C-alpha cells in the first residue's frame, strides 16, 4: 500500500482546521501516533526534541535534531512541503520553537508527548495553556479511511495466520513462556513489524485478563487464553483473542464459554452507525448478566484500534458516542473465575453503513486439541 493513500498530505490542513475550530493556536506533535497520523513520519521517540509545529495561522515546520535530519528527509513528511528546522546539540530547541511561534494562548500537545518535553514547553511558552492534541485529532483518527480499513484488514489477516498456528505450539508440559516465544516469532513471520503483546494464560492464570507469560507448565485439560497483537509496517495494529483447550474442558468452563460466545456475537450484531458505544457494551453484558456471570465480566467490552492498540472509541458504559462508518474497535467480552480459569473472545470490527465488519475470521468456538 502506498503511503500517499494511508497518510494523505491533506491531513496537515485537516489537523489545522480542527485545531482552529477548537480554539487552539497551534499543535505541537512529538514522535508517536499523532505525529505519524498527520505526517506519516514514524520518528524515533528520543529525549532530543523532534516536533511538528502546526500553527493555526502561519507556516507549519518540523523541528528536528541535526542528526535526525536525513531520516526526516527520507520519511513521508518530506512530501508535505514544510520547512525542516534542524537544531544543533548546543541549541535550545524549545526556545527556538517559542520564538518562531510568537505569542500563543492555547497549544495542543501530542497525547503521548513525554513530561520531559511538555514541561520544557511550559517553561518556554509560559503564557500558553496546554491541552491534549487528542481532543482535536480524535474525530479524524477515529474515522478510518478506506486505506486505513484495508490496513486493519491486512493486520487482521496476519494475526489470524498466527492463531491458526497456535494449536501446534500448545502442548501439555510446555511453559507459557515457551509457547509465547513461538507465538512472538510467528507474529513477525506473519508480516508484523513489531510484537506488541503476547498473552498466554493457562488454567487459573486465565482469570487475569492481562496476565502475560510465566514459567507455569501447561497441564492437560486446561483452557488457555491466547490474546496477541502487533503493529504492521503500515503502522496499523492487530489484536485478537481465542481460547484453546488441551483436552476436554472442565464442565463449569464449557458452560460459561457458550454464554461468552453468545455475548460476543450479540455485541457484534449490535454494531451499526448511530448506535452508542455503551449500548454495544450492554449488548454483550446483558447476555452474561442474565446467565449469572455479570460479576465476572470485569472490564469494558472493547477499545478503538488503529495506529494504537488502545485508542478511541471505547466500548464502555457511560460512553454515549454514536458509532459512525469507519470507527474500528475490538469486541472482547470475558468471564473470569478467580482461582479457576477464564475466557475472552476478541475480534476487531469496523463499523460500515451496513453494520459491523469483522477483520478477524478464525473460528470462535473453543479450540479443543
Ligand atoms: Zn486488553
Ligand atoms: Zn487483545
Ligand atoms: Zn483488545
| Low-pLDDT regions | none
Count of DSSP-assigned helices: 11
Could you estimate the helical fraction of the residues in percent?
Answer: 25-40%
Shape: elongated
* Straight-line N-to-C gap: 37 Å
Provide the list of bound ligands, each named once.
Answer: zinc ion
Largest sheet: 6 strands, mixed
How are the strands of the biggest sheet laid out side by side?
4-3-2-1-5-6
Mean of the pLDDT scores?
96
Structural category is: alpha/beta
Give the percentage of residues in beta strands: 15-25%
What features would you describe in this structure?
The chain has 369 residues and is α/β, with parallel strands linked by helices. It has 11 helices and 17 strands. It has helices at residues 3-6, 11-21, 33-39, 69-73, 93-101, 115-124, 134-142, 146-169, 176-189, 251-270, 277-290, and strands spanning 26-29, 51-55, 61-65, 83-87, 106-109, 129-132, 194-202, 223-231, 240-245, 302-304, 311-315, 328-331, 334-337, 341-344, 347-351, 356-358, 367-368. A 6-stranded mixed β-sheet has the order 4-3-2-1-5-6. A 4-stranded mixed β-sheet has the order 7-8-9-17, with helices on one face. Strands 12-15-16 form a 3-stranded antiparallel β-sheet, covered by helices on one side. Helix 8 runs antiparallel to helix 9 and helix 10 runs antiparallel to helix 11 (277-290). The protein starts with a helix and ends with a strand. The model has no long low-confidence stretch (mean pLDDT 96). The chain binds zinc ion (3 copies). Residues 239, 303, 330, 332, 346 line the site of one zinc ion.
Amino acid at each position: 500500500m502506498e503511503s500517499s493513500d494511508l497518510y494523505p498530505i491533506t491531513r496537515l490542513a485537516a489537523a489545522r482546521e480542527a485545531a482552529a475550530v477548537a480554539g487552539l493556536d497551534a499543535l505541537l506533535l512529538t514522535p508517536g501516533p499523532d505525529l505519524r497520523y498527520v505526517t506519516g513520519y514514524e520518528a524515533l521517540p528520543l529525549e532530543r526534541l523532534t516536533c511538528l509545529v502546526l500553527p493555526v495561522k502561519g507556516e507549519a515546520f518540523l523541528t528536528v535534531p541535526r542528526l535526525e535530519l536525513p531520516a526526516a528527509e527520507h520519511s513521508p513528511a518530506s512530501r508535505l512541503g514544510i520547512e525542516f528546522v534542524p537544531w544543533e546539540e548546543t541549541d535550545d530547541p524549545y526556545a527556538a520553537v517559542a520564538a518562531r511561534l510568537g505569542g500563543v494562548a492555547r497549544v495542543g500537545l501530542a497525547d503521548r508527548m513525554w513530561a520531559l518535553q511538555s514541561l520544557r514547553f511550559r517553561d518556554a511558552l509560559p503564557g500558553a495553556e496546554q491541552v491534549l492534541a487528542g481532543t482535536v485529532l480524535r474525530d479524524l483518527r477515529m474515522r478510518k479511511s478506506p486505506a486505513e480499513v484495508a490496513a486493519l484488514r491486512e493486520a487482521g489477516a496476519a494475526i489470524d495466520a498466527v492463531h491458526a498456528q497456535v494449536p501446534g505450539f500448545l502442548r501439555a508440559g510446555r511453559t507459557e513462556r515457551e509457547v509465547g516465544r513461538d507465538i512472538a516469532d510467528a507474529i513477525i513471520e506473519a508480516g508484523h513489524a513489531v510484537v506488541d503483546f503476547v498473552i498466554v494464560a493457562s488454567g487459573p492464570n486465565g482469570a487475569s485478563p492481562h496476565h502475560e507469560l510465566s514459567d507455569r507448565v501447561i497441564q492437560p485439560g486446561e483452557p488457555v487464553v491466547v490474546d496477541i497483537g502487533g503493529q504492521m509496517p503500515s503502522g496499523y495494529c492487530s489484536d485478537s483473542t481465542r481460547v484453546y483447550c488441551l483436552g476436554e474442558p472442565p464442565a463449569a468452563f464449557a458452560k460459561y464459554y457458550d454464554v461468552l460466545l453468545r455475548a460476543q456475537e450479540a455485541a457484534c450484531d449490535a454494531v451499526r452507525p448511530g448506535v452508542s458505544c455503551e449500548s454495544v457494551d450492554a449488548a454483550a453484558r446483558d447476555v452474561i448478566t442474565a446467565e449469572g456471570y455479570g460479576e465476572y465480566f470485569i472490564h469494558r467490552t472493547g477499545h478503538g484500534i488503529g495506529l494504537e492498540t488502545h485508542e478511541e472509541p471505547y466500548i464502555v458504559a457511560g460512553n454515549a458516542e454514536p458509532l459512525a462508518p469507519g470507527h474500528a474497535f475490538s469486541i472482547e467480552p470475558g468471564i473470569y473465575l478467580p482461582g479457576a480459569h477464564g475466557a475472552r473472545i476478541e475480534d476487531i470490527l469496523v463499523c460500515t453503513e451496513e453494520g459491523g465488519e469483522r477483520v478477524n475470521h478464525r473460528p470462535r468456538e473453543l479450540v479443543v486439541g
